[in-house]
# Entry
Amino acid sequence: LQVETLQKSSEEKYKKDEADLKKEKQSFESKVSQLETDLQAERKKMDRMKATQEKETKNREHELLSLRTKLRSLESNTGITSKKIQEEYQTKIEKLEEDLSREKQEYEDLTTKYEILEEEHVGTKSQLVKDKELVY
# Structure
C-alpha cells in the first residue's frame, strides 16, 4: 500500500514536471520565434533605410558635382567672377558637403546599431538554446 502511494506520488510529480517542461519549452520557442520575427522586421527596415540613404547620398553628390561644374563654368565664362555668385555657390557647396557628411555619419551610426542588435539577437537566441538544452 505504501509502495503504491509512493509510486502514484512519483508518477504525479513526473507528469507535473513533464507538463512544466513542455510549458517552458513552448515559452522558449515562442521567444525565439518572436526574436526572429523582430530581427526580420529590423532587417527589412534597415534595408529600406539603407536604400533611401544611398539614394539621398547619390542625389546630394550629384547636386554637389552639378554646383561645382556651374561654379567653374561661371568662373571661366565671365573672366571676372562675380563675388556674390561665387559666394552663393560656395555656401551651397559647403552646406551640401555638411549635409552629406552628416548623412554619412547617420548611416554609419544606423549600421552600427543594426550590428549591435543582430549580435544581441544571436546571443539571446544562443542563450535560449542553451537554456532549452539544460531543461532537457
